[in-house]
Amino acid sequence: MARDGVYSRNGDRLSRRREAAHRQAVVNAVLATRRMQLADWHGRAYLLKTATGKSKVFDSLSHLWPEAEALSGATFDPLDPVLLARLKAGA
């Protein structure tokens, strides 16, 4: 059954949760390079935290990279070839 705003082929609840957990793990691997972490906020939003204690709650992963830049004070390119090569080497 198609659901507006959900871009997943997984129709059942367990599959959606598993997909969300995988997405969060991948994002956290990228964020760890900046000493940041993303966590689920009561299943309704996301909490982005820095190593220095700054944090921000937001509703959608589409807000993640701008929020990461705002908290870190630096530009953040999750598709940077050097970053991706470093992540692949560590995997």
Describe the protein.
By secondary structure, the chain is of the alpha+beta class. It has one domain. Helix content is 42%, strand content 18%. It is built from 3 helices and 3 strands, in the order αβββαα. It has a 3-stranded antiparallel beta sheet. The longest helix has 19 residues.
Give the overall silhouette.
globular
Which structural category fits the helices and strands?
alpha+beta
Helical proportion, percent range:
40-55%
Contiguous runs where pLDDT drops below 50 for at least 5 residues: none
**DSSP E strands, number:** 3
Number of helices: 3
> What's the arrangement of strands in the largest beta sheet?
1-2-3
The radius of gyration computed from the alpha-carbon positions, rounded to a whole number of angstroms, is 14 Å
β-sheet strand percentage: 15-25%
Domain module count: 1
Q: What secondary-structure arrangement, pairings included, does this model have?
A:
Blueprint: H1 13-31, E1 36-41, E2 45-50, E3 55-58, H2 64-72, H3 81-90
Antiparallel strand pairs: 1-2, 2-3
Concise account of the structure shown:
This protein is α+β, with helices and mostly antiparallel strands and 91 residues long. Helix content is 42%, strand content 18%.
List the defining traits of the structure above.
alpha+beta, 91 residues, globular
